[in-house]
Amino acid sequence: MTTAIIIVAVALVLAAAVYFFLVRGPQGGGRGLRSRFGPEYDRVVARHGGDTKAAEHELEERVKRHGHLERRPLTEAARAEYTARWARTQEQFVESPQQALTEADALLAELSRDRGFPGGENFEEHTDALSVHHARHVDGYRRVHTARNDGTGTEEMREAFVEARGLFDALLADGPAEHGHGNRQLTKGRSTS
């Protein structure tokens, strides 16, 4: 009798594990979503007024819609051109921060489309797709997109530009952004590489 109870208990635990793996996926649920999305998880929870279930539902839907995007590789020539364009945009920041942010915004949109992310008219849908694969870097893109038109001060624009560099590096790389690339920063009044 005791052996039968143990067998039934083990079978129930295995059935529950299979259910959660198949239905929720390996990243499903609060901890998996929090781990996968990092600061994006907190942003979505805050946008839902602290309702974690609603936020997690939204994030799960993003994963369903955009989790299986096939990222297109860049040629070495395209990679070099994007790198040169970013450097020119960064240099332009000193003379015209607003114009540099506008160009950085357009450059990130173009690069992400070239890598296989959906483009289109809807910026939120575009950043939602990016957040599934680059959650730790997408906020810099949002900040650049917003700061280019909202009268943000120069220091806030500089911070947005520096933060957006993380997404640029992640999109440019075949895998996640290399840590060394994130150290290129704009200092007050001049750029450094």
Low-pLDDT stretches: 18-28, 175-193
Q: Looking at the structure, what is the overall shape?
A: elongated
Mean pLDDT: 81
Put simply, the count of helices is 9
Percent range for β-strand residues:
under 5%
Strand order of the largest sheet: 1-2
In total, how many beta strands? 2
Largest sheet: 2 strands, antiparallel
Helix content class: 55-70%
Number of domains: 2
Question: How would you describe this protein?
Answer:
This protein is mostly helical and 193 residues long. It has 2 domains: 2-66, no CATH class; 76-191, no CATH class. It is built from 9 helices and 2 strands, in the order αααααααααββ. The chain has helices at 2-24, 29-37, 39-47, 52-66, 76-95, 97-114, 123-134, 138-147, 154-172; strands at 186-187, 190-191. The chain has a two-stranded antiparallel ribbon. β1 (186-187) and β2 form a beta hairpin. Mean pLDDT is 81; it is low at 18-28 and 175-193.
Task: Give the SSE layout.
Blueprint: H1 2-24, H2 29-37, H3 39-47, H4 52-66, H5 76-95, H6 97-114, H7 123-134, H8 138-147, H9 154-172, E1 186-187, E2 190-191
Entry summary:
Residues 173-193 are annotated as: Disordered. This is Secreted protein. The chain is mostly helical.
